[in-house]
Amino acid sequence: MPVDTLADLLGREMTPTALEEAAQLAAGLSDGDLVGLVERLPAARASVLLQTLDEGRALAVFASLDAPHQAVLVDALQESYAVGLFVAMDPDDQVSLLDELSPDLAEHFLAQLDPRARALTSLVRAYPRQSIGRRMSPEVVSVPMTDSVDEALARVRLRLQDAETVYTLPVVDEGRVLVGVLGLRRLLATDPDTPVAEIMRPVESAVVTEDAERTARRFLDRKLLGMPIVDADHRLVGIVTVDDALVITEEADSQDHARQGGTEALGRPYLSTAVGDLVRSRIVWLLVLAVSAALTVQVLEIFEATLTEVVVLALFIPLLTGTGGNTGNQAATTITRALALGDVTPRDISRVLLREARVGALLGALLGSLAFLVAGAVYGVQIGLVIGLTLLSVCTIAATVGGAMPIIAQKLRADPAVFSNPFISTFTDATGLVVYFLIARAVLQL
């Protein structure tokens, strides 16, 4: 395949002939193929590939990469070439890249912009990191409500080259206060002399300091093409488009999924991530979970005498801890997702606890009944009863705790995904064992 051929070629010594051949192969590939190839190649080879492309395609490929990956390539590219790519990017994309660079290099890149571009980029950079203002484009085409349709179209034509989008047009008053929104289709279909104020519609907007992820999910839920961003006085300051919203939610989902698995999101493609970075993304979580798992060891030590008297109890420990952990993980994942989508808020915690307790009890009753029949037939009725009652209890506790933890995290202004599945598994392991041995002592009269 051409992609594989180009990858092999880039792995060889780059003579002038090889560079020319690489440029010809790259010219025949789509931007998507080139992005995928850059993501898989080591930084040195990827930088060579970028420099074989014409300026427009190189910018399109570079801008499609995650900001951490862009920063790695900046180190591998010639400085003048990297600066050229940076200067040609949109202000919001420039800010994302600047966040990944060292402070000195970021200031150097920022100094290369002309005064107008530097002002726009600095404006976006001034907002809090997790805010939607950090992800908006300040290059927005607005239409005064006093304009006619013909005048509005003239404004759009003047800004076609530098505007983030012209499909969604915010309508403002003389003080730049947002009063409505207008779609390009409606504008084109209306008589040229019609006042804009007569055809604009109510606007869905966001305040510049709102959380980026929540805003993006609300944006996508409303199925919008663009959302105007306003300041505290409702003055228009920028716009977010559907591609921005998709990137924000993809980043948030990647981080949540990674943390639920006990690691940190890489922020760049796996094959282009250094082994040291892979280790760093996992080691802290492993250390935390190892310390947490010590609780389980302590529980086993406390009930060592019980295990000595009835050795068969040890056989069911993996079943019980695994079932409890899985039940808690299911509940936590469901509620974390519901929080992200706005289906659940912290005020709903009592309803969530009640629902998850009921779900856990029903799951525990079903699994416990099955375990009672199987374990009772093999090891006796008393052992079967211990296992059945433990599953009922563990599933109820795990589902309730798993549903509560993400909500508690959000109330504490923490990321719900931090209360991730490994933490819940460790908690349910320890509490499940305590419940198990207490039930065993009561039923078996130990």
UniProtKB/TrEMBL annotation:
CDD domains: CBS_pair_Mg_transporter
GO molecular function: magnesium ion transmembrane transporter activity; metal ion binding
InterPro entries the UniProt entry points to: CBS_dom, CBS_dom_sf, Mg_transptr_MgtE_intracell_dom, MgtE_N_sf, MgtE_transporter, SLC41_membr_dom, SLC41_membr_dom_sf
GO cellular component terms, semicolon-separated: plasma membrane
Bilayer topology term: Multi-pass membrane protein
Cellular compartments annotated: Cell membrane; Membrane
NCBIfam families, A to Z: mgtE
Subunit structure: Homodimer.
Role summary: Acts as a magnesium transporter.
Name the record gives this protein: Magnesium transporter MgtE
